[in-house]
Sequence to fold (621 residues):
Amino acid sequence: MHNSVKPLGPPPTRGSPRLRSLDPFPLPGRPPAQPSDEHWNAVLAQLDIALQPIVNIFTGACYGYEALLRGTEAAGFASIQDFFDISHTMGVLPDVEMVLRTRAAEKFVRLPHHAQSRLFINLDNRILDPCLDLPEQTRTMATRLGIADGALVFEVSERQPLPSGDASAADLFRRYKHNEFRVAIDDFGTGFSGLQLLYFTEPDFLKIDRFFVSDIATDARKRLFLSQIVNIAHLLGVVVLAEGVETEREYFVCKEIGCDLIQGYLVQHPTCDPAALKPHYETIEELARRERRTTTSDQRRIAEQIAVIAPVTVSASMEEVFQRLRADKTLTFIPVVDDRGEPLGILREKDLKDLTYSPFGKDLMHNKAYSRRLPHYVTRAPIADINTHAENILQAYTAVEISEGIIIVDGMRYVGFLSAQALLRIINEKNLAVARDQNPLSRLPGNAVIHEYVSEALAATDTEVVLAYFDFDNFKPFNDKYGFRLGDRAILLFAEILAKGVPRDRGFAGHVGGDDFFGGFRGMAFDAALARCRALIETFRSDVESFYDDESRRAGGIRGQDRLGNTMSFPLMTVSAVVIHLPAGRGVHTSDAISQLIADLKKEAKHAADRLCAASPMPGR
Fold:
């Protein structure tokens, strides 16, 4: 990038306005009335471009950088938006946009690793005019700077209305794609068009607005909204990017619901210094590694079932495609990737039949003036990262009426194809594994899954967690008097109460064995979790009374023998609970230490009036 500011270029073509004498700036501190081309160049000289990294949520590898404008206030404008509004009012917005695109691209190519990255550039919707040739000018500029095809991504914002409606604007976006650019929808979920823009634009990327990312760890509605949007995007073969990720809690939720990329202060603040940018962010990789150590991944199962169908690159000729199909009669489709190995979709054999069976098809295919290029025949296909849970992949697949399967990626690169049959085998294998660990009576998860849950909860030190251990009181005399069948009914009663009492999105219910149960609450305030535990205790106390005969209920207990064989009176059955609070930002605790703490407090819980004892371990113990 040169230090001097380039002039605003040669006379624009196809109706693009020239810089000319303009109306005065309406606010104090603005350039004088009737500013000249030279004055606008002086204004632009005070502007700079900052870059903010966009990274892979699983690996921390830098996928690209967003170009952000800086210096508008020093140039006399109230804000960045004010600068673009004034440029639009004075009719110079297309020229200003082209200057800033060039400046951002020049800074981008200074990065040593730019060949492996993408540059995301914001596109002002007001320049989406069919009379302007900005896509073609940008293509010329990118070629001059040696920027590879597909490396420039233009972000269209939902915050601004499209000048000609969603359907008409889709034709303008196709011009950008025709020039080998990618398209992203920015600020998704906060603007004018919403799902209609997603439908008509057919974007390559979907950027979720910061509004839905902030506090997502504690806001169930935001989590539900974002998870559904991610599913829809993946069905359409669209990569999802979460903007404004600032905390580890936000990172873990975005990763859990399936976002592919993240951008925000957790990774790095925007910077105007290219030397401060890195090709890889170890902090994100460590977060992903920490979660993989404490959760059960389906990666191994998925990798074993993937069909590795060799893809073709988007630059391949149609003759190469037909040669592949002729050489392998079993192929009904071929995956298509770009030069980086990222999937673009699939080529279906049936979609090529019109060209294949045409009497002049072969001649047309070789005639460059008439033949259509390979990208014209590419069909989007559902995509999923290899680290995605199999249930989420199944949900994406079943929502598509006709699909050959799911494209599987690792680090955004194509690794293979997962067919419907392979996906069902994975789900069946998982279900069998879960069934083996279920308690045979209650069908709740058993000790192995409980241990995994506790290990994961202890490792997530940035998230508030509440663990609860439930143990029946006076179960043995009840079981002796009424028999094992009614004893089992009492166990099933509490299992049902527990399963209903923990929230589905943030809770966990497990059966340790016999009359011992486990409950977990992640991302829930301690007081709220404690109130749920009290409600579980009270519901069981009330409901289990119906299991006794009238005489025992009136007496408030039964006669029986204790564990030493002594005859004595026992109150009606209840359940006691030890509740462990693990606040966010805590030190590291081991599962053995938590187990010992529960054992130490069980006696205290049984003697408490409300049958409950709550505690928090010492930090770092």
Q: What stands out?
A: The first helix runs from residue 37 to 45. Residues 162 and 169 are 7 Å apart (CA to CA). The chain has a mean pLDDT of 83. The radius of gyration is 31 Å.
